[in-house]
Amino acid sequence: MLKNAKALLFGLLFLPLMAVALPQESAVPGGVVILPLAPVAAPRPKASFHAKPVMVVAENGLWQAVLGVPLDLNAGVHSLDVVKQGTSSQLLFSIQDKAYPTQHITIKDESKVNPNPFDMERINRETARIDAALQHWTDLEQVPFNFIWPVKGRVSGLFGRRRVFNGEPRKPHSGMDIAAATGTPILAPAAGTIRGTGDYFFNGNTVFIDHGQGLVTMFCHLSRIDVEDGQAIKQGEVIGQVGATGRVTGPHLHMGVSLNDERVEPTLFFQGSPAGQ
Question: Domain 15-95 is classified in which CATH homologous superfamily?
């Protein structure tokens, strides 16, 4: 009995130090870097990178910064700005280079590749709304990381690929594409708040979910949106249906993950693959 009691006490003493699931770490452009800052017994520090606030959560007995690495960041040594109990400092970390492949895509609607001036006015207005959703900061101490796949299907577009539309280079792919039939229900990967919805020129029908501390997921090309701005969402709740709206070659879900307003590799937040393998 005494032996069992000691074992239980030992387990309770070390319970706060047990690891809590965080995103997988990948110290490359478009990846995630996790940096320990201070013991959880101290007040929560603040962190920022390139003047943008960075997530800080308690994990394994420490305050940890969870940094989204910009897709265009050069390889080398960089510094995270940290404020602990009013004292500022810098924490160095290294980023390795990564070569993303190039993808050539043919779009039948040429206006989706080279928009006319009227469409450009619309795109500029929409960009401001999209930026506002991705830059939103909700200061939650507990952030949900136990993501579930929003749909099941084959990965048809990888994150980070350098894309060439109709022979013209464009921005890298900022999310991942999952092939699924039109009308397939899309599930919220984790709890959060709907931070915006809309029908956008490139993205088509789109939903943004704010999960806290700069972690935002986005879902594009929907055939239908089933949620409203400001609505609280539970994990697994249907937010809409797969479609082919916006700039697409066929029905699929484009899912993006934004961390400290940087688009990062979505698979770092999930277990397994959307194909169930």
Answer: Peptidoglycan hydrolase domains (2.60.40.1590)
